[in-house]
Amino acid sequence: QSARGVLVAVGQPAVELLVGVRAHVVYALAPDPPLGNIGVNNTAMPYQVFRALLQVRPKAKRIAVVSSERGAHRLTLARQAARSLGIELIELPAPDSAAAIRALRALFVPLAEESDGVAIPSPVDALWLGADPQLIDMQVLQFVLQMQIQWQVPVVASTRQQVHFGALLAVDWPLEAVGRHLAWQVNQIERATSLERVSSTPASLPGR
């Protein structure tokens, strides 16, 4: 029986395309890889993200986060990080990007309509986009950036590309570091596969 090969899937579409293939799939830059796969992402853990936010906004205590069921694991880590840092997470469940905009609108717009022109503070101290990166399409990003301007509420992005569009900050690893770790993982699998191939080769019996 031949050993399985190694395939590298870069990005979520590539990972989804390779689901079920008979190979060792190593992912990179995919926010929602299948359970059991190994790989590397460039996003930082929620604790690191919240610590970075507190360095620039020390008084941030209420952070809104939109997420679908896809982000359940990251949301669990975010709750743990928030508790340890004295932060309250305002969770806005949304199955898709349209629902995410509706949830954010329900959080901000009623206050604006009831203000009668009087300046009132933002209902939250920051918006975090990292719990469910696939939920944040361009429409959601544009809406939260509008809220950032209108309410002076910082947007904590999941990627540095979103910072280029106008978000306040993102915490991630350089792509060079991601590439090095990805190469190390592939080498480890290939080394283990080679050993497996050698151990499965029957030894030759000496002739008589």
Concise synopsis of the structure shown:
The protein is 45% helix and 14% strand.
Distance linking N and C termini: 29 Å
Percent of residues in helices comes to 40-55%
Strand content: 5-15%
The geometry reads as: elongated
SSE order: EHEEHEHEHEHEHH
**What's the average pLDDT?**
84
* Total beta-strand segments: 7
Strand order of the largest sheet: 5-4-6-7
Number of helices: 7
Category by helix and strand content: alpha/beta
Low-confidence stretches: 198-208
Estimated radius of gyration: 22 Å
The largest pleated sheet is described as: 4 strands, parallel
What would you say this structure looks like, in words?
By secondary structure, the protein is α/β, with parallel strands linked by helices. It is 45% helix and 14% strand. It contains 7 helices and 7 strands, in the order E-H-E-E-H-E-H-E-H-E-H-E-H-H. The protein has helices at residues 12-17, 46-56, 72-85, 97-114, 138-151, 160-165, 175-199, and strands at residues 6-10, 24-28, 38-40, 62-67, 88-93, 126-128, 155-156. The strands form 2 sheets. Strands 5-4-6-7 form a 4-stranded parallel β-sheet. A 3-stranded parallel β-sheet has the order 1-2-3. Helix 2 (46-56) packs across helix 3 (72-85) and helix 4 (97-114) runs parallel beside helix 5. The radius of gyration is 22 Å and the shape is elongated. The two termini are 29 Å apart.
